[in-house]
């Protein structure tokens, strides 16, 4: 049975969201958590904006676009080959602005990245904060 990467991602996102809900018991999700859950279930190729538009908005500091760009880099697309270091960096920038989904994504990446890769991502975030473009 073949499942495309996009459907795998959506299934994993839904499973992750249900784990968060289960872990919290019967407590209702906050608006940020609900938004992150909804956004996490959207496949990259069904989002309303294209890769170039998301890159531009993310570079301008848009928290949601930064999270979406992390999703694009986590997947493997012709416009954005898989790059977990860049995905982590964009998730971190979004998480620093309070995006719950990005915080969760960073926690998932903690185990996937080597110390060197995490340091590279942290360096990208630091340079971005100083005005360097994360995307060229």
Would you count the extended β strands for me?
Answer: 0
How many whole angstroms does the radius of gyration measure?
15 Å
Largest sheet: none
The N- and C-terminal alpha carbons lie at a distance of: 39 Å
Q: How many distinct folded domains?
A: 1
Number of helices: 7
Uncertain runs are 1-24
Quaternary organisation of the protein chains = single chain
User: Which secondary-structure class do the elements indicate?
Assistant: mainly alpha
Shape: globular
Helix content: 55-70%
Q: How do the helices and strands follow one another from N- to C-terminus? A: HHHHHHH
What do the pLDDT scores average to?
A: 74
Strand content: under 5%
Walk me through what this model shows.
The protein is an all-alpha fold. It has one domain (5-129). It is 65% helix and 0% strand. The protein has seven helices and no strands. α5 crosses α6 (100-110). The chain starts with a helix and ends in a 7-residue tail after the last helix.
Secondary structure elements and pairings:
Layout: H1 5-23, H2 31-40, H3 51-59, H4 63-74, H5 84-96, H6 100-110, H7 115-129
Keywords, separated by commas or semicolons:
single chain, 7 helices, mainly alpha, 136 residues
């Amino acid at each position: 049975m073949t499942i495309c990467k996009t459907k795998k991602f959506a299934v994993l996102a839904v499973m992750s969201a249900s784990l968060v809900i289960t872990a919290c018991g019967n407590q209702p999700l906050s608006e940020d958590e609900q938004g992150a859950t909804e956004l996490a279930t959207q496949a990259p190729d069904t989002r309303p904006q294209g890769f170039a538009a998301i890159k531009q908005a993310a570079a301008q500091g848009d928290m949601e676009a930064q999270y979406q760009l992390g999703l694009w880099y986590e997947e493997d697309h012709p416009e954005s080959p898989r790059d977990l270091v860049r995905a982590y960096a964009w998730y971190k920038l979004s998480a620093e602005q309070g995006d719950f989904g990005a915080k969760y994504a960073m926690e998932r990446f903690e185990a996937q990245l080597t110390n060197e890769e995490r340091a590279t991502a942290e360096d990208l975030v630091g340079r971005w904060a100083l005005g360097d473009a994360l995307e060229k």
